[in-house]
């Protein structure tokens, strides 16, 4: 049998409950998801930092130091960097990738607003013909970090 992809969606909360500058957590897809409203743009990531599981929902959204010449300090990407409150790991809030290594990331979720409600979307692998609730890969089933 060949593999396909299933798109799942969960209604998280009313948009009115997450004003710009706020963050919250919701239970969705069997895990805790952190949702951020950054100047009207919504972002959702797994709430657990891949380093040691720190709560990303309590992280600061700001910018970061950019590559520059010696003795030159440039700051940028304001509003795009989420910093883990435990050990300071920095993530691009949109892609979930760490600033220091693009192969390390926090899982992200697509966010939509439908009828005034924040809706989270995710895609997961699915073997055609298999029951919908059965995961394809044990790692995905165990960690939700596939």
Biggest β-sheet: count, sense, barrel?
A: 6 strands, antiparallel
The overall number of domains is 1
User: Numbering strands along the chain, what is their spatial order in the largest sheet?
Assistant: 1-9-8-4-3-2
**Total number of β-strand segments?**
9
By secondary-structure content and strand pairing, the structural class works out as mainly beta
* CATH fold field value: Rieske Iron-sulfur Protein
Radius of gyration: 17 Å
In percent, how helical is the residue content?
Answer: under 10%
CATH class designation: Mainly Beta
Secondary-structure element series:
EEEEEEEEEH
Describe it.
With 146 residues, the protein is mostly beta strands. The chain has 1 helix and 9 strands, in the order βββββββββα. The strands form 2 sheets. A 6-stranded antiparallel sheet has the order 1-9-8-4-3-2, with no helix packed on it. The longest helix is centred in the last third of the chain and has 6 residues.
């Amino acid at each position: 049998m060949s593999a396909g992809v299933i798109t799942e969606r969960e209604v998280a909360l009313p948009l009115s409950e997450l004003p710009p500058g706020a963050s919250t957590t919701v239970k969705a897809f069997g895990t805790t998801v952190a949702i951020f409203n950054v100047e009207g743009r919504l972002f959702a990531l797994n709430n657990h930092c891949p380093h040691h599981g720190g709560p990303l929902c309590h992280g600061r959204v700001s910018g970061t130091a950019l590559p520059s010449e010696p003795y030159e300090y440039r700051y940028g990407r304001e509003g795009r960097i989420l910093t883990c409150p435990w050990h300071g790991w920095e993530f691009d809030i949109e892609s979930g990738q760490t600033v220091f290594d693009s192969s390390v990331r926090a899982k992200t979720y697509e966010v939509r607003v439908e009828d005034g409600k924040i809706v989270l979307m995710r895609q997961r692998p699915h073997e055609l013909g298999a029951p919908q609730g059965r995961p394809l890969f044990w790692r995905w089933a165990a960690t939700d970090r596939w």
